[in-house]
Request: fold
Amino acid sequence: MCGELFSLEGKVALVTGGGRGLGRGMALALAAAGADVAVAARTRTQLEEAATEIGRLGRRALPVVADVRDPGSVSAMVRAVVGGLGGLDVLVNAAGVNRRIPSLEVTPESWDEIVDTNLKGTFFASQAAARVMRERGGGKIINIASLASEIGLPRRVPYTAAKAGVLGLTRALAVEWAPYNIQVNAIGPGYFRTEMTEPLFRDPEWVKRLLSRIPAGRVGVPEDLAGAAIFLASRASDYITGQIIYVDGGFLAGWPDRPRAG
Ligand SMILES: NC(=O)c1ccc[n+]([C@@H]2O[C@H](COP(=O)([O-])OP(=O)(O)OC[C@H]3O[C@@H](n4cnc5c(N)ncnc54)[C@H](OP(=O)(O)O)[C@@H]3O)[C@@H](O)[C@H]2O)c1
Reply:
């Protein structure tokens, strides 16, 4: 009963941003739970590596080069998945970029790059996927939000605005697409060391301050997202929609009484 509830056997998943970092981690988790998985991003070599790892888990894998800022590229991505793997049941919107720029120096170009990738990309990928899911009688959309969906991050204002937007979009789409049996939820990762956050992690003082602020006393690793991703992709979450699950070691719950640095 328990295994069946969380099984993704016979399902097709697409993970944008699946070439590396948190997206690749979630793609592998969905494959381990039984799904065939397509991974999409702009860097073919990373997609091919991810596809090889999915294949090693005994699942079909499809690397798809796509730029989520471009709705035409997003439609082609979804068509490639349906053509290559025979359908689409689960979409994880993990493609994202972040840049630390003082707000007085944000240009229209940097605003567009960050907001278009994180927010516009999430919307149009969801729209293209939902058109397929509606025909199939349902599906699961999992958006990747952030602590920035809840709290303001200085010098990352376009990112904060976009990730707060992801939260609003998650709730509104959940309501609109509930009649199609499409559940739309989000995962909000705390701090994870990936290419996106690598520059921060090179500063030992910053790492010390960060660790003293996380009740769990450590940063996340991609495997920490596996449980939430499988849960929200599976039948186990069929009556849950419009929700966000924070996977943050307790960051948003409050300040540690006694910091557990180390
Ligand atoms: N790391 C953290 O602590 C953290 C915390 C909260 C939320 N997040 C979110 O988690 C998600 C994954 O981030 P990460 O930390 O794993 O970062 P990452 O290692 O930099 O991965 C980002 C992924 O997004 C893809 N991507 C970027 N722009 C794209 C575009 N225009 N079209 C298609 N794909 C694109 C990248 O591939 P290409 O560059 O090859 O296109 C890459 O596969 C993001 O949404 C991020 O905001 C991360």
Summary: The chain has a mean pLDDT of 97. The chain is about 45% helix and 15% strand.
